Amino acid sequence: MDLQGHVRLMKQNAKVMDCFMSRWLEEHVQNRKNGQVKQEQDLMDVLLSIFPEDGMEHGHTNRSIIKGTALDVLSLTEFELMEVLDVGLAEVTSAVAQVSEIACPPYQTVLFLLEQRIKNEFYSGHLPTRLKGLDEVLCGGIPFGVLTELVGPAGIGKTQFCMKLSLLASLPAKFGGLDGRVIYVDVESKFSSRRLIEIGVNSFPELFHMEGMAQEMAGRILVLKPASLAEFTESLQQIKVSLLQHEVKLLVIDSMTALVSGEFEQGPPKQHLLGWHISFIKSLAEFSQIPVVVTNQVRSQSRNEVSQYCFQAQSRDDILEGPATFDSHLVPALGIHWAHAVTIRLVLEAKSGERFMKVAKSPISPPLVFPFNITSSGISLLTDAGVEMTGPQINTIRNQGNNDIINLHGERS
Questions:
Q1: What is the value of pTM for the model shown?
Q2: Tell me, what's the pLDDT at 304?
């Protein structure tokens, strides 16, 4: 029996390590195929030179041997290596030092990184959102290989945005799409096939009025409906396989909060499990090099809660003495560890009867805000010129007149 969950955590950590090794190996295999062989070889290069990629040794694939050997070298202690290799401490210490020196990534200049990015442009890219101002700010749209988060209160338009992105990813390339399949994890059963077709018909009438095209586009979107966090965990490995086998070009998880909102009643161990999910989902994005979009809900901020960043927050005295406007104290439902995992954070909020989309976190853009509305063709920006934000308004989430808020105990306020 695994009453304390140690065995389960060990298995989960093993999966993460296997995914890391697979990604490391695949990166080196692709570099070799593209002729990008480094002069200074690291551990994986040495193993690939000894064991050809597609060979077999003693009933095991060379890929498995390479991953297992690399994992052993990087994870075993010096004394364990002494026993396995049957050599002395001095030899093991010298070997580990050499492997560490080889495996340690060298310093790289900004110029070198820029040149590498240009060379690898074929393997990276963006999913255009068809929102001109947002695409310009994000240098092309939703980036491949990282997590992009949509956070906001219920009914603000997160699912509408996800459905439009799903449609864009499935469109033929000649219409500006990625011409691929989409995996849509619909946790709250909010996905509407009728609304998806409506968005398509109004956005691309010339395409969707072609006979059978609506059915073809809808057939490219695979919808999963996990009933619990455990069921979602089991489906992650299936998702990983599908990403490689079925030309999947977009993964949407709507929403992460709903998966864990009922689990926090049992305390910190569940938050640790969320940490594993964050790592795995990030690895999926990096390994498959596709855009991964996740949605996050909001919760009320307690008065004793410390602000995430001192330069973005109001003082505690201002919060306590300010007017009792409930919507001014909304924060993303998932915590700071999740916030560090996402590369792009788009905040959707409502203020004075208007909707706004904020680029609250992006390594390539200053914080900007765009007014938007929802039409028959999906989300539409009212202006392509974003207004730059500073201070507390970057992370402030407003939702005037809507009290449908999720807190960490799975209750609605």
A1: 0.67
A2: 54
